Amino acid sequence: MAVYKSPRPDVEIPDSALTPFVLERVREMGDKPAFVEGPTGRTVTYADLDRGVRAVAGGLAARGFGKGDVFALYLPNLPEYPIAYHGILLTGGTVSTINPLYTAEELAFQLNDAGASHLLTIPQFLDVAKEAAGRSGVKEIFVLGEADGAAPFASLMDPTASVPDVEVDPANDVAVLPYSSGTTGGPKGVMLTHRNLVANLVQAEDAHGLGDDVLLGVLPFFHIYGQIVIMNLALHLGLTSVTMPRFDLEQFLAVLQDHRVTYAHVVPPIVLALAKHPAVDDYDLSALRVVFSGAAPLGPDLEAACERRLGVSVIQGYGMTETSPATHIRRVEDRDHPGSIGPLVANTEARVVDWATGEDVAPGEDGEIWVRGPQVMKGYLNNPEATARTVDAEGWLHTGDIGHADDDEIFFIADRLKELIKYKAYQVPPAELEAVLLKHPAVADAAVIPSPDEEAGEIPKAFVVLKPDADVSAEDLMAFVADHVSPQKRIRLLEFTDAIPKSASGKILRRVLVDKERAAVAGT
Question: Which of 202, 225, 493, 507 could connect to 461 by a Cys-Cys bridge, CB 3.0–4.6 Å?
Protein backbone atom coordinates (compact mmCIF):
# COMPACT_ATOMS: atom_id res chain seq x y z
CA MET A 1 0.00 0.00 0.00
CA ALA A 2 1.43 3.38 -1.09
CA VAL A 3 0.54 5.87 1.63
CA TYR A 4 1.42 9.54 1.29
CA LYS A 5 2.09 11.43 4.51
CA SER A 6 2.14 15.14 5.18
CA PRO A 7 5.56 16.78 4.90
CA ARG A 8 4.53 18.95 7.86
CA PRO A 9 5.42 17.69 11.35
CA ASP A 10 2.46 16.40 13.32
CA VAL A 11 0.72 19.09 15.36
CA GLU A 12 -0.76 18.61 18.81
CA ILE A 13 -4.56 18.62 18.82
CA PRO A 14 -5.99 20.06 22.05
CA ASP A 15 -8.62 17.93 23.77
CA SER A 16 -11.04 20.83 23.81
CA ALA A 17 -14.58 21.76 22.85
CA LEU A 18 -14.66 24.04 19.81
CA THR A 19 -15.80 27.34 21.33
CA PRO A 20 -13.31 27.52 24.25
CA PHE A 21 -10.54 26.75 21.75
CA VAL A 22 -11.67 29.30 19.15
CA LEU A 23 -12.27 32.04 21.70
CA GLU A 24 -9.27 31.40 23.94
CA ARG A 25 -7.77 34.81 23.07
CA VAL A 26 -11.00 36.79 23.06
CA ARG A 27 -10.41 38.58 26.37
CA GLU A 28 -6.92 39.79 25.48
CA MET A 29 -8.11 41.16 22.11
CA GLY A 30 -10.56 43.55 23.80
CA ASP A 31 -11.66 46.38 21.52
CA LYS A 32 -9.97 45.04 18.39
CA PRO A 33 -12.57 44.53 15.62
CA ALA A 34 -13.46 40.86 15.25
CA PHE A 35 -16.00 41.35 12.46
CA VAL A 36 -16.72 44.37 10.31
CA GLU A 37 -19.77 44.42 8.07
CA GLY A 38 -18.10 45.41 4.81
CA PRO A 39 -20.88 47.40 3.10
CA THR A 40 -21.81 49.45 6.22
CA GLY A 41 -18.71 49.45 8.43
CA ARG A 42 -20.71 48.19 11.43
CA THR A 43 -18.20 46.62 13.82
CA VAL A 44 -18.30 43.90 16.46
CA THR A 45 -15.21 43.95 18.69
CA TYR A 46 -13.79 40.92 20.45
CA ALA A 47 -15.24 42.28 23.72
CA ASP A 48 -18.68 42.63 22.06
CA LEU A 49 -18.37 39.10 20.72
CA ASP A 50 -17.47 37.66 24.11
CA ARG A 51 -20.43 39.36 25.79
CA GLY A 52 -22.78 38.33 22.99
CA VAL A 53 -21.77 34.67 22.95
CA ARG A 54 -22.21 34.38 26.70
CA ALA A 55 -25.57 36.18 26.60
CA VAL A 56 -26.85 33.80 23.91
CA ALA A 57 -25.65 30.76 25.83
CA GLY A 58 -27.26 31.99 29.03
CA GLY A 59 -30.53 32.84 27.30
CA LEU A 60 -30.72 29.48 25.54
CA ALA A 61 -29.92 27.55 28.71
CA ALA A 62 -32.67 29.45 30.55
CA ARG A 63 -35.08 28.28 27.83
CA GLY A 64 -34.05 24.68 28.38
CA PHE A 65 -31.93 24.36 25.23
CA GLY A 66 -28.82 22.25 25.75
CA LYS A 67 -26.87 19.15 24.91
CA GLY A 68 -28.54 17.03 22.28
CA ASP A 69 -30.57 19.94 20.87
CA VAL A 70 -30.09 21.34 17.35
CA PHE A 71 -30.32 25.03 16.45
CA ALA A 72 -30.50 25.97 12.75
CA LEU A 73 -28.88 29.13 11.32
CA TYR A 74 -30.56 30.36 8.13
CA LEU A 75 -28.50 33.52 7.68
CA PRO A 76 -26.26 35.42 5.28
CA ASN A 77 -22.78 36.44 6.44
CA LEU A 78 -23.32 39.01 9.19
CA PRO A 79 -21.34 39.86 12.34
CA GLU A 80 -24.09 38.18 14.40
CA TYR A 81 -23.37 34.81 12.79
CA PRO A 82 -20.43 33.85 15.05
CA ILE A 83 -22.26 35.22 18.12
CA ALA A 84 -25.21 32.91 17.56
CA TYR A 85 -23.01 30.01 16.44
CA HIS A 86 -20.73 30.02 19.48
CA GLY A 87 -23.53 30.81 21.91
CA ILE A 88 -25.28 27.65 20.76
CA LEU A 89 -22.11 25.59 21.07
CA LEU A 90 -21.42 26.92 24.57
CA THR A 91 -24.67 25.26 25.73
CA GLY A 92 -23.48 21.89 24.43
CA GLY A 93 -25.97 22.09 21.57
CA THR A 94 -25.36 21.45 17.87
CA VAL A 95 -25.43 24.07 15.10
CA SER A 96 -26.93 23.13 11.74
CA THR A 97 -25.89 25.71 9.14
CA ILE A 98 -28.23 26.23 6.19
CA ASN A 99 -27.85 27.84 2.77
CA PRO A 100 -29.79 31.13 2.93
CA LEU A 101 -30.80 30.68 -0.72
CA TYR A 102 -32.83 27.57 0.11
CA THR A 103 -36.50 27.38 -0.78
CA ALA A 104 -39.07 26.45 1.87
CA GLU A 105 -39.05 22.89 0.51
CA GLU A 106 -35.27 22.55 0.82
CA LEU A 107 -35.21 24.26 4.21
CA ALA A 108 -37.96 22.04 5.61
CA PHE A 109 -36.04 18.93 4.56
CA GLN A 110 -32.92 19.98 6.46
CA LEU A 111 -34.84 21.13 9.54
CA ASN A 112 -36.62 17.78 9.73
CA ASP A 113 -33.60 15.66 8.95
CA ALA A 114 -31.41 17.51 11.47
CA GLY A 115 -34.15 17.50 14.13
CA ALA A 116 -33.81 21.26 14.67
CA SER A 117 -35.88 22.77 17.48
CA HIS A 118 -34.95 26.45 16.95
CA LEU A 119 -34.20 28.62 13.92
CA LEU A 120 -32.53 32.03 13.47
CA THR A 121 -33.00 34.10 10.31
CA ILE A 122 -33.39 37.67 9.06
CA PRO A 123 -36.65 39.53 8.25
CA GLN A 124 -36.13 39.16 4.48
CA PHE A 125 -36.12 35.35 4.80
CA LEU A 126 -38.88 35.07 7.39
CA ASP A 127 -41.74 34.05 5.09
CA VAL A 128 -39.72 31.11 3.78
CA ALA A 129 -38.54 30.28 7.31
CA LYS A 130 -42.07 30.26 8.71
CA GLU A 131 -43.39 28.07 5.90
CA ALA A 132 -40.56 25.57 6.39
CA ALA A 133 -40.78 25.64 10.18
CA GLY A 134 -44.48 24.84 9.92
CA ARG A 135 -43.56 21.58 8.20
CA SER A 136 -40.96 20.68 10.82
CA GLY A 137 -40.39 20.26 14.53
CA VAL A 138 -39.09 23.81 15.00
CA LYS A 139 -40.58 25.23 18.20
CA GLU A 140 -39.38 28.81 17.97
CA ILE A 141 -38.10 31.18 15.27
CA PHE A 142 -35.80 34.08 16.09
CA VAL A 143 -35.01 36.98 13.80
CA LEU A 144 -32.23 39.57 13.73
CA GLY A 145 -33.99 42.88 14.32
CA GLU A 146 -37.76 42.69 14.51
CA ALA A 147 -40.48 41.15 12.35
CA ASP A 148 -43.99 39.82 12.89
CA GLY A 149 -44.15 36.12 13.63
CA ALA A 150 -40.72 35.70 15.20
CA ALA A 151 -38.99 36.57 18.46
CA PRO A 152 -36.21 39.18 18.25
CA PHE A 153 -32.75 37.66 18.57
CA ALA A 154 -32.07 40.34 21.19
CA SER A 155 -34.75 38.82 23.41
CA LEU A 156 -32.81 35.57 23.48
CA MET A 157 -29.65 37.26 24.72
CA ASP A 158 -29.65 37.36 28.51
CA PRO A 159 -26.47 38.87 29.97
CA THR A 160 -27.70 38.14 33.51
CA ALA A 161 -28.18 34.42 32.94
CA SER A 162 -25.30 32.17 33.90
CA VAL A 163 -23.44 30.31 31.17
CA PRO A 164 -24.16 26.60 31.62
CA ASP A 165 -21.37 24.31 32.80
CA VAL A 166 -21.61 21.57 30.20
CA GLU A 167 -19.34 18.57 29.86
CA VAL A 168 -18.43 18.01 26.21
CA ASP A 169 -16.79 14.87 24.84
CA PRO A 170 -14.76 16.41 21.98
CA ALA A 171 -14.18 13.10 20.18
CA ASN A 172 -17.84 12.07 20.06
CA ASP A 173 -20.15 15.07 20.56
CA VAL A 174 -21.33 16.67 17.33
CA ALA A 175 -20.64 20.41 17.21
CA VAL A 176 -21.77 21.25 13.70
CA LEU A 177 -24.18 19.57 11.31
CA PRO A 178 -23.78 21.03 7.81
CA TYR A 179 -25.29 19.22 4.84
CA SER A 180 -23.47 17.75 1.87
CA SER A 181 -24.36 15.45 -0.98
CA GLY A 182 -21.06 13.64 -0.50
CA THR A 183 -20.06 11.56 -3.49
CA THR A 184 -23.58 10.66 -4.58
CA GLY A 185 -27.27 11.08 -3.78
CA GLY A 186 -29.09 13.87 -2.00
CA PRO A 187 -28.09 16.11 0.93
CA LYS A 188 -26.92 14.33 4.09
CA GLY A 189 -26.13 15.66 7.55
CA VAL A 190 -22.36 15.61 8.11
CA MET A 191 -21.60 14.95 11.77
CA LEU A 192 -18.51 17.00 12.64
CA THR A 193 -17.32 16.61 16.21
CA HIS A 194 -15.60 19.24 18.31
CA ARG A 195 -12.34 17.31 17.82
CA ASN A 196 -12.78 17.19 14.02
CA LEU A 197 -13.06 20.96 13.88
CA VAL A 198 -10.39 21.79 16.46
CA ALA A 199 -8.02 19.45 14.60
CA ASN A 200 -8.65 21.18 11.28
CA LEU A 201 -8.18 24.62 12.77
CA VAL A 202 -4.78 23.57 14.12
CA GLN A 203 -3.92 22.01 10.76
CA ALA A 204 -5.03 25.10 8.82
CA GLU A 205 -3.16 27.45 11.17
CA ASP A 206 0.01 25.42 10.62
CA ALA A 207 -0.33 25.53 6.83
CA HIS A 208 -1.70 29.01 6.13
CA GLY A 209 1.09 31.20 7.49
CA LEU A 210 -1.27 34.01 8.48
CA GLY A 211 0.20 37.09 10.13
CA ASP A 212 -1.60 40.21 11.31
CA ASP A 213 -3.97 39.91 8.35
CA VAL A 214 -7.38 41.34 7.55
CA LEU A 215 -9.48 38.53 6.11
CA LEU A 216 -12.36 38.74 3.67
CA GLY A 217 -15.57 36.98 4.71
CA VAL A 218 -17.46 36.80 1.42
CA LEU A 219 -17.60 33.00 1.21
CA PRO A 220 -20.74 31.86 3.03
CA PHE A 221 -20.41 30.91 6.68
CA PHE A 222 -23.03 28.18 6.26
CA HIS A 223 -20.46 26.39 4.08
CA ILE A 224 -17.72 24.57 5.98
CA TYR A 225 -14.96 26.46 4.13
CA GLY A 226 -16.18 29.90 5.15
CA GLN A 227 -17.16 28.69 8.59
CA ILE A 228 -13.87 27.08 9.64
CA VAL A 229 -11.08 28.49 7.47
CA ILE A 230 -12.36 32.08 7.65
CA MET A 231 -14.78 32.70 10.53
CA ASN A 232 -13.33 30.40 13.18
CA LEU A 233 -9.66 30.50 12.22
CA ALA A 234 -9.68 34.31 12.23
CA LEU A 235 -11.25 34.31 15.71
CA HIS A 236 -8.75 31.79 17.02
CA LEU A 237 -5.85 33.91 15.73
CA GLY A 238 -7.31 37.22 16.88
CA LEU A 239 -7.67 38.63 13.34
CA THR A 240 -10.30 40.89 11.80
CA SER A 241 -12.76 39.54 9.22
CA VAL A 242 -14.72 41.81 6.88
CA THR A 243 -18.08 40.24 6.02
CA MET A 244 -20.29 40.53 2.97
CA PRO A 245 -23.86 39.21 3.01
CA ARG A 246 -23.69 38.32 -0.68
CA PHE A 247 -21.28 38.66 -3.60
CA ASP A 248 -21.55 41.71 -5.83
CA LEU A 249 -18.43 42.49 -7.86
CA GLU A 250 -18.35 46.28 -7.44
CA GLN A 251 -19.17 46.03 -3.73
CA PHE A 252 -16.60 43.24 -3.34
CA LEU A 253 -13.89 45.40 -4.90
CA ALA A 254 -14.89 48.39 -2.76
CA VAL A 255 -14.70 46.27 0.40
CA LEU A 256 -11.22 45.02 -0.54
CA GLN A 257 -10.11 48.60 -1.12
CA ASP A 258 -11.83 50.44 1.75
CA HIS A 259 -11.04 47.91 4.48
CA ARG A 260 -7.49 47.22 3.26
CA VAL A 261 -8.10 43.47 3.07
CA THR A 262 -4.82 41.54 2.93
CA TYR A 263 -5.96 37.91 2.63
CA ALA A 264 -8.96 37.05 0.45
CA HIS A 265 -10.52 33.60 0.49
CA VAL A 266 -12.46 33.17 -2.74
CA VAL A 267 -13.68 30.60 -5.26
CA PRO A 268 -12.60 30.20 -8.93
CA PRO A 269 -15.38 32.38 -10.46
CA ILE A 270 -14.16 35.29 -8.29
CA VAL A 271 -10.56 34.64 -9.37
CA LEU A 272 -11.80 34.84 -12.97
CA ALA A 273 -13.35 38.24 -12.28
CA LEU A 274 -10.18 39.49 -10.57
CA ALA A 275 -8.11 38.35 -13.55
CA LYS A 276 -10.30 39.63 -16.37
CA HIS A 277 -13.04 42.09 -15.36
CA PRO A 278 -12.32 45.71 -16.37
CA ALA A 279 -13.86 47.08 -13.13
CA VAL A 280 -10.86 45.78 -11.15
CA ASP A 281 -8.72 48.61 -12.56
CA ASP A 282 -10.93 51.21 -10.84
CA TYR A 283 -9.98 50.09 -7.32
CA ASP A 284 -6.87 50.24 -5.15
CA LEU A 285 -6.15 46.65 -4.13
CA SER A 286 -2.58 47.32 -3.06
CA ALA A 287 -3.14 46.00 0.49
CA LEU A 288 -4.01 42.56 -0.85
CA ARG A 289 -1.15 40.06 -0.57
CA VAL A 290 -2.82 36.63 -0.95
CA VAL A 291 -5.79 35.28 -2.88
CA PHE A 292 -6.66 31.80 -1.62
CA SER A 293 -9.02 29.80 -3.82
CA GLY A 294 -10.95 26.74 -2.70
CA ALA A 295 -14.18 24.75 -3.07
CA ALA A 296 -13.49 23.91 -6.75
CA PRO A 297 -10.38 23.37 -8.92
CA LEU A 298 -8.47 26.41 -10.21
CA GLY A 299 -6.42 25.97 -13.38
CA PRO A 300 -2.78 27.15 -13.57
CA ASP A 301 -3.47 29.62 -16.40
CA LEU A 302 -6.16 31.47 -14.47
CA GLU A 303 -4.03 31.35 -11.33
CA ALA A 304 -1.13 32.96 -13.22
CA ALA A 305 -3.34 35.57 -14.90
CA CYS A 306 -4.67 36.75 -11.53
CA GLU A 307 -1.16 36.89 -10.05
CA ARG A 308 0.14 38.98 -12.95
CA ARG A 309 -2.71 41.45 -12.84
CA LEU A 310 -2.82 42.02 -9.08
CA GLY A 311 0.78 41.33 -8.11
CA VAL A 312 -0.33 38.92 -5.36
CA SER A 313 0.20 35.27 -4.50
CA VAL A 314 -2.65 33.06 -5.74
CA ILE A 315 -2.74 29.71 -3.99
CA GLN A 316 -5.32 27.03 -3.43
CA GLY A 317 -6.27 24.13 -1.22
CA TYR A 318 -8.61 21.19 -1.18
CA GLY A 319 -11.11 19.68 1.18
CA MET A 320 -14.66 18.50 1.71
CA THR A 321 -17.43 19.12 4.18
CA GLU A 322 -16.72 15.58 5.35
CA THR A 323 -13.12 16.55 6.24
CA SER A 324 -13.91 19.70 8.25
CA PRO A 325 -12.82 20.79 5.45
CA ALA A 326 -9.08 21.04 4.67
CA THR A 327 -6.88 18.09 3.68
CA HIS A 328 -4.44 19.90 1.34
CA ILE A 329 -3.14 23.48 1.48
CA ARG A 330 -0.55 25.06 -0.78
CA ARG A 331 1.67 27.53 1.00
CA VAL A 332 2.51 31.00 -0.28
CA GLU A 333 6.20 30.14 -0.52
CA ASP A 334 5.52 27.15 -2.80
CA ARG A 335 5.97 28.73 -6.24
CA ASP A 336 7.08 25.57 -8.06
CA HIS A 337 3.76 23.77 -8.48
CA PRO A 338 1.27 26.06 -10.27
CA GLY A 339 -2.27 24.72 -10.38
CA SER A 340 -1.66 22.35 -7.46
CA ILE A 341 -3.70 22.00 -4.27
CA GLY A 342 -0.42 21.59 -2.40
CA PRO A 343 0.70 18.88 -0.01
CA LEU A 344 -1.28 17.21 2.74
CA VAL A 345 -1.85 19.21 5.91
CA ALA A 346 -0.29 17.95 9.14
CA ASN A 347 -1.50 14.67 10.71
CA THR A 348 -3.05 13.60 7.39
CA GLU A 349 -2.44 10.66 5.05
CA ALA A 350 -3.60 9.94 1.51
CA ARG A 351 -3.70 7.22 -1.09
CA VAL A 352 -4.30 7.53 -4.83
CA VAL A 353 -6.26 4.50 -5.97
CA ASP A 354 -7.42 3.04 -9.27
CA TRP A 355 -11.18 3.46 -8.92
CA ALA A 356 -11.86 0.27 -10.87
CA THR A 357 -9.42 -2.11 -9.14
CA GLY A 358 -8.80 -0.51 -5.74
CA GLU A 359 -5.04 -0.77 -6.32
CA ASP A 360 -2.69 2.14 -5.59
CA VAL A 361 -1.36 3.92 -8.67
CA ALA A 362 2.16 5.25 -9.24
CA PRO A 363 3.14 8.90 -8.67
CA GLY A 364 1.98 11.03 -11.60
CA GLU A 365 -0.89 8.68 -12.46
CA ASP A 366 -4.47 9.73 -11.85
CA GLY A 367 -6.67 7.85 -9.41
CA GLU A 368 -9.30 8.49 -6.78
CA ILE A 369 -7.86 10.35 -3.80
CA TRP A 370 -8.49 8.77 -0.39
CA VAL A 371 -7.66 10.62 2.82
CA ARG A 372 -7.37 9.76 6.49
CA GLY A 373 -6.87 12.02 9.50
CA PRO A 374 -8.43 13.48 12.66
CA GLN A 375 -10.52 15.89 10.59
CA VAL A 376 -12.56 13.10 8.94
CA MET A 377 -16.22 13.23 9.96
CA LYS A 378 -17.89 11.01 12.52
CA GLY A 379 -20.33 9.96 9.77
CA TYR A 380 -23.58 10.92 8.07
CA LEU A 381 -26.53 11.53 10.40
CA ASN A 382 -28.85 8.51 10.60
CA ASN A 383 -27.31 7.09 7.42
CA PRO A 384 -24.88 4.26 8.19
CA GLU A 385 -25.10 2.91 4.64
CA ALA A 386 -23.88 6.19 3.09
CA THR A 387 -21.22 6.47 5.79
CA ALA A 388 -19.90 2.99 5.02
CA ARG A 389 -19.77 3.80 1.30
CA THR A 390 -17.70 6.93 1.99
CA VAL A 391 -15.41 5.94 4.89
CA ASP A 392 -14.08 2.39 4.80
CA ALA A 393 -13.25 0.10 7.72
CA GLU A 394 -9.64 1.37 7.84
CA GLY A 395 -10.74 5.00 8.13
CA TRP A 396 -9.98 6.01 4.54
CA LEU A 397 -12.46 8.57 3.22
CA HIS A 398 -13.06 7.99 -0.50
CA THR A 399 -13.31 11.55 -1.82
CA GLY A 400 -14.77 10.81 -5.25
CA ASP A 401 -12.22 13.21 -6.73
CA ILE A 402 -9.64 12.13 -9.29
CA GLY A 403 -6.10 13.44 -9.16
CA HIS A 404 -2.48 12.55 -8.63
CA ALA A 405 0.60 13.27 -6.56
CA ASP A 406 3.81 14.23 -8.32
CA ASP A 407 7.30 13.08 -7.34
CA ASP A 408 7.42 15.84 -4.70
CA GLU A 409 4.15 14.52 -3.19
CA ILE A 410 2.31 17.66 -4.24
CA PHE A 411 -1.27 16.92 -5.26
CA PHE A 412 -3.31 17.97 -8.30
CA ILE A 413 -7.04 17.54 -8.95
CA ALA A 414 -7.84 16.39 -12.48
CA ASP A 415 -11.51 15.42 -12.52
CA ARG A 416 -14.40 14.27 -10.42
CA LEU A 417 -15.55 10.70 -10.07
CA LYS A 418 -18.42 11.71 -7.83
CA GLU A 419 -21.64 12.97 -9.34
CA LEU A 420 -21.78 16.46 -7.86
CA ILE A 421 -21.98 19.53 -10.07
CA LYS A 422 -19.95 22.51 -8.81
CA TYR A 423 -21.82 25.66 -9.92
CA LYS A 424 -19.80 28.68 -8.75
CA ALA A 425 -18.40 26.30 -6.06
CA TYR A 426 -21.90 25.46 -4.77
CA GLN A 427 -22.74 21.76 -4.55
CA VAL A 428 -25.56 20.77 -6.90
CA PRO A 429 -26.60 17.09 -6.65
CA PRO A 430 -27.88 15.77 -10.01
CA ALA A 431 -30.16 13.23 -8.32
CA GLU A 432 -32.10 16.02 -6.63
CA LEU A 433 -32.77 17.80 -9.94
CA GLU A 434 -33.68 14.54 -11.66
CA ALA A 435 -36.25 13.86 -8.94
CA VAL A 436 -37.81 17.30 -9.53
CA LEU A 437 -37.94 16.78 -13.32
CA LEU A 438 -39.62 13.40 -12.90
CA LYS A 439 -42.46 15.10 -11.02
CA HIS A 440 -43.46 16.88 -14.24
CA PRO A 441 -46.29 15.02 -16.01
CA ALA A 442 -44.60 15.30 -19.41
CA VAL A 443 -41.26 13.75 -18.35
CA ALA A 444 -40.65 10.02 -18.78
CA ASP A 445 -36.97 9.99 -17.78
CA ALA A 446 -34.18 12.45 -17.05
CA ALA A 447 -30.48 12.75 -16.28
CA VAL A 448 -28.58 15.82 -15.11
CA ILE A 449 -24.86 16.39 -15.63
CA PRO A 450 -22.31 19.22 -15.36
CA SER A 451 -21.67 21.20 -18.53
CA PRO A 452 -18.37 23.15 -18.63
CA ASP A 453 -18.75 26.92 -18.28
CA GLU A 454 -15.98 29.52 -18.06
CA GLU A 455 -17.69 31.81 -15.54
CA ALA A 456 -19.47 29.28 -13.30
CA GLY A 457 -17.06 26.36 -13.69
CA GLU A 458 -19.97 24.03 -14.38
CA ILE A 459 -23.67 24.52 -15.00
CA PRO A 460 -26.44 21.94 -14.58
CA LYS A 461 -27.63 20.47 -17.89
CA ALA A 462 -30.56 18.09 -18.19
CA PHE A 463 -31.18 15.37 -20.75
CA VAL A 464 -34.91 14.64 -20.85
CA VAL A 465 -37.02 11.88 -22.39
CA LEU A 466 -40.60 13.06 -22.91
CA LYS A 467 -43.69 10.90 -22.65
CA PRO A 468 -45.47 10.15 -25.96
CA ASP A 469 -47.48 13.13 -27.29
CA ALA A 470 -46.11 15.42 -24.56
CA ASP A 471 -46.17 19.08 -25.54
CA VAL A 472 -43.67 21.01 -23.42
CA SER A 473 -40.64 23.17 -24.20
CA ALA A 474 -37.20 23.13 -22.67
CA GLU A 475 -37.93 26.57 -21.21
CA ASP A 476 -41.12 25.24 -19.57
CA LEU A 477 -39.21 22.43 -17.87
CA MET A 478 -36.38 24.68 -16.71
CA ALA A 479 -38.95 27.08 -15.22
CA PHE A 480 -40.68 24.15 -13.50
CA VAL A 481 -37.43 23.12 -11.82
CA ALA A 482 -36.64 26.73 -10.88
CA ASP A 483 -39.90 26.88 -8.91
CA HIS A 484 -38.72 24.02 -6.67
CA VAL A 485 -35.04 24.72 -6.02
CA SER A 486 -32.73 27.50 -4.89
CA PRO A 487 -31.07 29.66 -7.60
CA GLN A 488 -27.72 27.87 -7.79
CA LYS A 489 -29.46 24.57 -8.55
CA ARG A 490 -31.47 25.80 -11.53
CA ILE A 491 -31.03 23.88 -14.78
CA ARG A 492 -29.35 26.22 -17.27
CA LEU A 493 -29.38 23.93 -20.34
CA LEU A 494 -31.84 21.22 -21.38
CA GLU A 495 -31.65 18.79 -24.28
CA PHE A 496 -34.35 16.33 -25.35
CA THR A 497 -33.21 12.79 -26.10
CA ASP A 498 -34.75 9.44 -27.00
CA ALA A 499 -33.16 7.51 -24.13
CA ILE A 500 -30.96 7.92 -21.07
CA PRO A 501 -27.91 5.59 -21.11
CA LYS A 502 -28.09 3.16 -18.17
CA SER A 503 -26.27 0.13 -16.83
CA ALA A 504 -27.83 -3.32 -16.65
CA SER A 505 -28.85 -2.53 -13.06
CA GLY A 506 -30.61 0.66 -14.14
CA LYS A 507 -28.01 3.16 -12.91
CA ILE A 508 -27.59 6.25 -15.07
CA LEU A 509 -24.30 6.11 -16.98
CA ARG A 510 -23.58 9.75 -16.25
CA ARG A 511 -20.00 9.50 -17.47
CA VAL A 512 -21.24 8.70 -21.01
CA LEU A 513 -23.27 11.90 -21.05
CA VAL A 514 -20.45 13.93 -19.45
CA ASP A 515 -17.94 12.79 -22.09
CA LYS A 516 -20.43 13.59 -24.86
CA GLU A 517 -21.08 17.06 -23.42
CA ARG A 518 -17.38 17.87 -23.00
CA ALA A 519 -16.69 16.88 -26.59
CA ALA A 520 -19.58 19.05 -27.80
CA VAL A 521 -18.45 22.08 -25.79
CA ALA A 522 -14.84 21.65 -26.92
CA GLY A 523 -15.97 21.57 -30.54
CA THR A 524 -17.94 24.81 -30.35
Answer: 493
